[in-house]
Amino acid sequence: MIYLFGKLVEEPVDHPIIRPSINAIAETYDLAEREPELATVISPFTGARISRFLHICESAIDLVKQNKMQRKLGQNTGTCFQRCVGMDALNALYSTTYEMDEVYGTDYHQRLKKFIAMTHTYNYVIGGAMTDVKGDRSLAPHQQQDPDMFVHIVERREKGVYISGAKAHQTGCINSHWLMVMPTMRLGEKDKDYAIIGAIPVDAEGITYIYGRQSCDRRSMEGGSIDAGNANFGGQEAMVILEHVFIPWEYVFMDGEYDFASMLVERFTTYHRRSYVCKTGLGDVLIGAAASIAEYNGVERASHIKDKLVEMTHLNETIYATGIAASYQGYATKSGAYICDNMLANVCKHHVTKMPYEIGRLAQDLAGGLVVTMPSEQEFRHHKVGELLQKYLKGKAGIETEDRMRMLRLIENMTLGRNAVGYLTESMHGAGSPQAQRILIARSMQLAYKKRLARILAGIETTKNKEEIVEELSGYFARVFSLGQNENNHL
Amino acid sequence: MIYLFGKLVEEPVDHPIIRPSINAIAETYDLAEREPELATVISPFTGARISRFLHICESAIDLVKQNKMQRKLGQNTGTCFQRCVGMDALNALYSTTYEMDEVYGTDYHQRLKKFIAMTHTYNYVIGGAMTDVKGDRSLAPHQQQDPDMFVHIVERREKGVYISGAKAHQTGCINSHWLMVMPTMRLGEKDKDYAIIGAIPVDAEGITYIYGRQSCDRRSMEGGSIDAGNANFGGQEAMVILEHVFIPWEYVFMDGEYDFASMLVERFTTYHRRSYVCKTGLGDVLIGAAASIAEYNGVERASHIKDKLVEMTHLNETIYATGIAASYQGYATKSGAYICDNMLANVCKHHVTKMPYEIGRLAQDLAGGLVVTMPSEQEFRHHKVGELLQKYLKGKAGIETEDRMRMLRLIENMTLGRNAVGYLTESMHGAGSPQAQRILIARSMQLAYKKRLARILAGIETTKNKEEIVEELSGYFARVFSLGQNENNHL
Amino acid sequence: MIYLFGKLVEEPVDHPIIRPSINAIAETYDLAEREPELATVISPFTGARISRFLHICESAIDLVKQNKMQRKLGQNTGTCFQRCVGMDALNALYSTTYEMDEVYGTDYHQRLKKFIAMTHTYNYVIGGAMTDVKGDRSLAPHQQQDPDMFVHIVERREKGVYISGAKAHQTGCINSHWLMVMPTMRLGEKDKDYAIIGAIPVDAEGITYIYGRQSCDRRSMEGGSIDAGNANFGGQEAMVILEHVFIPWEYVFMDGEYDFASMLVERFTTYHRRSYVCKTGLGDVLIGAAASIAEYNGVERASHIKDKLVEMTHLNETIYATGIAASYQGYATKSGAYICDNMLANVCKHHVTKMPYEIGRLAQDLAGGLVVTMPSEQEFRHHKVGELLQKYLKGKAGIETEDRMRMLRLIENMTLGRNAVGYLTESMHGAGSPQAQRILIARSMQLAYKKRLARILAGIETTKNKEEIVEELSGYFARVFSLGQNENNHL
Amino acid sequence: MIYLFGKLVEEPVDHPIIRPSINAIAETYDLAEREPELATVISPFTGARISRFLHICESAIDLVKQNKMQRKLGQNTGTCFQRCVGMDALNALYSTTYEMDEVYGTDYHQRLKKFIAMTHTYNYVIGGAMTDVKGDRSLAPHQQQDPDMFVHIVERREKGVYISGAKAHQTGCINSHWLMVMPTMRLGEKDKDYAIIGAIPVDAEGITYIYGRQSCDRRSMEGGSIDAGNANFGGQEAMVILEHVFIPWEYVFMDGEYDFASMLVERFTTYHRRSYVCKTGLGDVLIGAAASIAEYNGVERASHIKDKLVEMTHLNETIYATGIAASYQGYATKSGAYICDNMLANVCKHHVTKMPYEIGRLAQDLAGGLVVTMPSEQEFRHHKVGELLQKYLKGKAGIETEDRMRMLRLIENMTLGRNAVGYLTESMHGAGSPQAQRILIARSMQLAYKKRLARILAGIETTKNKEEIVEELSGYFARVFSLGQNENNHL
Fold first, then answer.
1. What span, in angstroms and rounded, lies between the C-alpha atoms of B335 and B395?
2. How far lies B382's CA from each of A7, A73, A378, B375, B376, in Å?
3. Is the pLDDT of residue B467 over 90?
4. DSSP type of residue A378
5. Residue A196's beta-bridge partner residues?
């Protein structure tokens, strides 16, 4: 059941607001056809060619290739194509279930592998459902007035468990085949019933989807093709409400092992924070749009215009470089699955919470004020007013007025409109808000090790203490100075 | 004739998209009632109490009071109240016509005073129509393929002139009584017919208004009160098309004196760039909204939350301080009208092209992702889905779910929606795009004077050259080290 | 007793490291001769013309004039001229003693007025001694292991008190006639003996000065005139150690009134934080130096060079504007002395902790790498090597090689050398480190008032609560919307 | 012949200013002993274990390993260890000579290989001499008034060539065994005599070294161990004057092929700009010093202190990530030698021109004002004054006063003193000033390709033009979407 604007949506595929989000996912399949090296792999489970989004990474290069595919899809759609959460969730679960089984003697890892093999067989789209609605953020799950503020097990039966709760702003959930339900944060002993991971088909009984509205969403319903800005592609986020939804044991991958919730969340965010390299593809589009509108306005040769395009590029490539560096510095977990570098993944995502806003600001600078004051497409199509607009919105000779309008609407779309949701605000909060990254950076920054470097150079007599030795042999700098991880991979 | 969504608007006052912009102007009258000291003056022309927006500044303190009124109106409306262009245009014209008359023996200044007296009599709203559509920005007005890319005189008759052309994104034009048409940039001798300043009633024959659409404008037509974010107030910008519009001589204040176009434009922007202090009022609202949503989410005590509110405040007050400094450093023109400091006005506006974007970004940080994924008001009003949302969108105990939704919609409104147009993009381009300020700063920065300071301290033997002496006795530093300007004013 | 490089300095005036700091103070007297309007006032105590640095402000314009004098002196010396602490201390004491007397019936205010009159009679230099050495910063004065970590009364006698302790990095202390000893922070009841304010002659018994060394200080002892960068002018900071120093009652202005320590400190910092407008004078010099070296290198016409000079100016004028805005918004204390606006003074100083660093960075950008790799003046004076340098360090035709070297050394001086101490690090920490300003901004930002603005516009039904009403009628916004303060002043 | 402070240096090894720079180079040999995996390779020319600094990269991983070695050496020395120029020069020459030979049938590549083999045999230190003194920067080499402003061939003889000119700020030149002389920029046909590349022993006849002075260099001559900040390690830059210096043909690797000068320069800067990863090692030291001083002051638990350490780390890791990303994306040149990605190398270096300044500013923030006002070591060693300082400069209990002083001096050293030269100003200008990177980014940013992405999404009908096709198949995006480069390497 999907609700949108107070109504049940009978046929999502035909809904003009939902359609662009489906097109974006469709492009992940189309790209797989056109560029199989980039967007597919041979499944080690089935031997068939499947989407790279379903692949468990077997090398650092596999991680890097995800980033390259993400950038290309960002370029091709100018929006969120909604498949990274599922990809990163499967990879994070792969190693977490392995280590859970080691500790508890459970068989989650085997179950998960069967599930993954099934997704490979059908080349499915998997959505990851992590973000609980959270209620009062200063309280733990079990402390909330209403226990349903975090998804939890409400009943255990012979064949499986029943869960209730809600997941907010779930990217692409309606366009998925299966949803992977996961906890959203570190849990304590009293939160045991909240320690549930399981897969459910998107049309399972008890699920209600409430579609999230986006800035300028109504424009997709107006019938034209200009004012939407990017008429073909858009993101999708909905609230998923789970009322007593059943999960059979074969699809349960955590049941009460609360002490592994933080491992799952941290591994997921490690993958997912560098997945935001996708935004560099959107950045490429926006840089192209800004360069185009400067050309249409006749100012592309001004030195300050060129310099702003350089600045946009510098920022965009910083996101790309920090993201792929996290992937290239990836290493094998015990399960054999590769995971990227935690520090650099957080550095990447932290830039993503700022740089797209600055790129967007610069795009608006180059666009000129018309980007927010332009009359509607209906005026442009009007027999009399349309003529006036044809005349007065003309830019440089040789450029169609309509093309200039289209380019301005695309910039509006990405900085204020439907795809600003994904390019800006989701860049801020997806995979954790800015402060979440700062906490992770703080945790990895190995001050004891660095303090000793300073003390030695300052000439302060010092013998290493235990904390420093531990920091030297493990953690971030162990990876920085490791030379081997890329040499042992499958290439 | 006003067009919107391809239709002629019969009664603008009743149109749900136009209405909020009228409310914003109405608040300038309401404030005049409630706080007459702040928002009115006694007209030296009529002796009656009139809006401060119609006043010619007689002291630096008059300039400062404009800023204080602007901030208050920004706080009360959270949008652009559309009257500053007219205010700043009248002030700029006052001194420019005076100095034109001195050179050319014309009587524009007397005509203007009569016009101003008339506006005082009726306490009118005056709109300023400056920004031409410009066509190819690399060409001068007379070089354009289509001569109408800039407004110009197409016919001179005994009783007056006829003009044609178009003015883009005219703030509050439909809500004004009169429009003051002015050139938009420095003109050359061949642009003589483009050197026209004149006043026209908004409903003059030959005028067509094409309403500019704003991000999320359709929400104002949905009938609810939540999703619009700020249901009562909004800005207004329209394209004004002038087809053979008549202006009688008594309302003509420049006719061919092309060499005074740049003086008019520069004085106008000097006033108008520090008028962007209004945005600090919007900033106050957005800081309040961010603090509120942090409270509703239960995180207002986190140190990073408090620090972000401090940062927002620091930025907002920087705009305010640089703006009022420009006003306080104001000085008398030959006509007696006071004008603010050019350098500091440009410094103020240049910050306005960046800081609101950063304040907006921080507000989105504090809001959380829900600000862009929240279901529509119609879901909330739906008998069944509404209940689910009541339950699952609940924040801290004691806070109504609806209040939390409303606060998030206000933040969306100011960072992506209708009022983001005014708070962000118009902050970028209104009164000149960022590069325009950098050019003005470059022109005022008196490098010869500063180079000599350096040469003296570096011990390089130096005698003042002529350029340095001129720079020392005039320009920005003459004002910096002047002690008298505020002492001679009316206080 | 003054110690420097492990030796007692017999004659400070002749010491090549101390001399430039004396020259800087001398310029405050010279400017008084050359520009009496800017740098002097008629003393209301004595009727004689005295330095503006000794004046108690009687109007907002008096506050502004301090800023203008500060900028000029910064331009003329390129360094810290060391008199603002005393000026701001006298002003802060003037109103604090007045209000202390009101509460406690003491006569500190009368004593202070006599003291001020005496300083006017002799046109003295007053140093302010505030910054205690502090020991463990997480402990209050009375909690420190060693009680002398903060200056305190060690003995009370019939004729006065004896104090001990030390004040760190005291600007210009050796160049002063009197030092005003003051507490450095909020004190509690147990810190009563630390609540001491009193004036002592700089050569009082028991005082030891330990000269602080500065970056590149040795260059002032090398005998040349190039490598020092700014051979004539430099700052001075020393540690002042007070061992059982006597203060007679007539020079005691607080003795145990610990609850007024925070008022004194806050008023002092309110004045002093906007006194950092002096750094805009240094900024003018550095902008001039950067423009000069670009000219000497033959690149002054490159667009990126011009743009960087604009950026430096934009930052520099932001400091100026926020500083004078704080002064212009000044208001009368109960004592009649004017004080500047607290919020804006903190905004000003907070920019000062960042912008000079960025201006310095840009100056180094324009300078080129030679600024840090240039051979010494002794090479340049060497008969053979000097010729090689003459040839190979030549820039544009018509520019002396020596002048190019001098300009580079000036830039080095202000970004890495002796005057970088004042331009950069002292800009960071003087009058309180960055976090101190953020705390003050947090305290003044009136969130209750702003939250209500947001709630009203969001359509959340609300009645004012008490906290909001208080915030509306007092605090920062009371001053923002006050129209009267400047009208009642002496102008 | 080495000149310093106007005197000929007889024995550089014993000179207290030069010694720390020798120690820094020595650490490259010591590290080779301690961590051979990191700092050595087996020479493919000789089969012996040699310094990695002499290695021609045979894979992308080889490039990455250079970065890891650089960071470690930065951590161990806190300064510039002076060997990267030579390393990057050899690599750039390797592929450039190969391609020159292809075009001109010369045998430079074979000569170079012989030279490299010889350096491997002796495990030499190679310095690269590129930066000409340039004179008037707006003129080409052959246009300069004095032809010696750029190094050029002054005579051709049977056995070789004679060159004259000067190279400014040559890093580590005196500590090298051989210098590789190279052109510094793109050359035209008239600059043919300036197109000279050749190797010369550092003590060749006709060479004069004039030592560059650094901020606070005199402190290394004072005899103590505190005030220098980092007593053991320092950088070295000198001006190299070449008067009729002979190079035999076997050491000449370019002679007149002016059209290959830009290839050499661009390849060199591509390597060298990402070599600035070394500064992250210095950043680690400075972060450690800032964390230490916060601890010594007793404030390490304050949330703003922790947040500033996070910020410093975020910036430092951004440099690291962008640098190694450039290396990981490396690819084979025709010669087989690997080169890193040009765009990302420039992005890395461009951050290096800003972020160390901000890291340094934050370190000064945490240090407190004492970092620039602390008395000299001689005071501390003085029998009486030393006791006072012991008492009054005490921080937290358990921390030695001397240790606190040492840590402050280290921070001073890296932000204002000797090593600020390398950490800040050389970060700005080494391997090209900021604008040089912006020009390279502009050249690589492939706007035609990006514009088309925008036009497609905006719905503007478009067929690819030739420029777009070329851009798609080559340049930066060809590398972005290439999946193979790392798979074919030697791992």
1. 59
2. 8, 37, 31, 11, 10
3. no
4. H
5. A255
pLDDT of residue B480: 93
CA torsion angle A135 A136 A138 A140 (round to 10): -40
- C140: closest chain D residue by CA: D298
Using an 8 Å CB-CB cutoff, list chain A residues near C303. 303-304
> SS3 helix, strand, coil % of chain D, rounded to 5?
55, 15, 30
Cα B469 vs. chain centroid, distance in angstroms? 36
Q: How far apart are the first and last CA of chain D?
A: 46
Q: What per-residue confidence (pLDDT) applies to D484?
A: 63
Asked whether B485 and B330 are in contact (CB, 8 A), the reply is yes
* Count of CB atoms situated within 10 Å of the CB of D464: 13
Tell me the two tokens of residue C14.
């002749």
pLDDT band of residue A484 (cuts 50, 70, 90) is: low
Q: Which residues of D touch A436 (CB under 8 A)?
A: none
Residue A411 pLDDT > 80, yes or no?
A: yes
- Any chains having at least 3 CB pairs less than 8 A from chain B are A, C, D
* Nearest-angstrom CA–CA distance, D417 and D404: 17
CB contacts, 8 Å: A307 with chain C: 304, 307
Q: Note if the pTM is more than 0.95.
A: yes
Residues B258 and B192: beta-carbon distance below 8 Å: yes
Tell me the average confidence (pLDDT) per consecutive run of 10 residues in chain C, 491 residues long.
Answer: 95 96 98 96 97 97 97 98 98 98 98 98 97 95 97 97 97 97 97 98 98 97 96 97 98 98 98 98 98 96 97 98 97 97 98 98 98 97 97 94 98 98 97 97 96 96 78 87 59 31
* D278 among known catalytic residues: yes
Rounded distance between C-alpha atoms, residue D168 and residue C393, angstroms = 9
DSSP letters for B117-154: HHHHHHT--EEEE--B--SSTTS-GGGSSSGGGS-EEE
Contacting chains of A (3 CB pairs or more, <8 Å) are: B, C, D
Residue B418 parent element (H or E): helix B418-420
SS3 label, residue C49: strand
Residue B490 has pLDDT above 70, yes or no: no
Tell which residue, B212, B211, B180, B200, has the closest CA to residue B243.
B200
Enter the tokens of residue D370.
Answer: 């004492």
Closest-CA residue of chain A to B378: A6
| Cβ-defined contact of D483 to A37 (cutoff 8 Å) | yes
Q: Tell me the sheet residues that pair with D179.
A: D127, D200
Q: What count of Cα atoms within 13 Å lies in the side-chain half-sphere of residue B3?
A: 25
pLDDT of residue A343: 98
pLDDT at B94 over 90: yes
Give per-residue pLDDT as tens, D36-47: 999 999 999 999
Report CB contact under 8 Å: C392, D166: yes
Question: In this structure, are strands B152-157 and B160-171 parallel, antiparallel, or unpaired?
Answer: antiparallel
Percent of chain D at pLDDT above 70? 98
CA D268 to chain centre: 11
Which residues, 6+ apart, have CB-to-CB distance to A449 below 8 Å? A468, A471, A472, A475, A477, D288
Q: Choose the mutation target among C303, C305, C314 for the interface with A, i.e. most A CBs under 10 Å.
A: C303
Q: What's the gap in Å between the CA of A304 and the closest CA on chain C?
A: 8
Provide the annotated active-site residues of A: 80, 84, 171, 237, 272, 276, 278, 426
Tell me if ipTM is over 0.90. yes
Exposed/middle/buried for A363, CB within 10 Å: 0-12, 13-18, 19+?
buried
D371/C133 Cβ within 8 A: no
| B468 annotated active-site | no
SS3 label, residue A23: helix
Quote the CA–CA distance of B150 and B158 in Å, as a whole number: 24
Half-sphere exposure of A348 (CA within 13 A, CB side): 34
